[in-house]
What we know:
The chain contains five helices and nine strands, in the order αββαβααβαβββββ. Helix content is 32%, strand content 22%. It is an alpha/beta fold. It has one domain (3-159): Purple Acid Phosphatase, chain A, domain 2, CATH 3.60.21. The protein has helices at 3-13, 46-58, 78-84, 86-97, 115-122; strands at residues 15-19, 25-28, 62-66, 101-104, 124-126, 133-135, 142-143, 146-150, 156-159. The strands form three sheets. Strands 2-3-4-7 form a four-stranded parallel sheet. It has a three-stranded mixed sheet with strand order 1-8-9, with no helix packed on it. A two-stranded antiparallel sheet has the order 5-6.
Amino acid sequence: MSVSSRLNQVFENCKQFWIDDKSKIIFFSDCHRGNNSWADNFARNQNVYFAAMLYYFTEGFTYIEIGDGDELWENRKFPVIREAHSHIFWLLSEFYKLNRLIMIYGNHDMNKKNKRFLEKCMYEYVDERTNDKKSLFVGIEAHEGIVLNVRGTDHKFYTA
């Protein structure tokens, strides 16, 4: 299958979202959140990322993560990543609670296309201090691509 055919296939089957002239959207890609070790490229920038995300959250933005948010090639266990960057995941879960988080998976976090992975690793987690289950992204979907439709126009934005 050609690249063009594959992109067309994704476009035809992807989830549609609606935006308008008042919509505030921030796109991030390739964060590659890791295990907070010396090899975790995200670790050096996590404070800047958190500050920016806090601003976008308080200003009412919708956050769209365009793939490779988590480094699941080098770090096979998502709970290690979630624990290493718990403050980041707390903030992302706040976006999610307000229906302002959209996830698109990439080649480094392709596990997210598997609903079972999402249910097992991302819906909730066990708090190591209290041993209680806590909600994270209950019911979240990760998309191969999305279309943003602009209300009142024929304009569409496609990202995969």
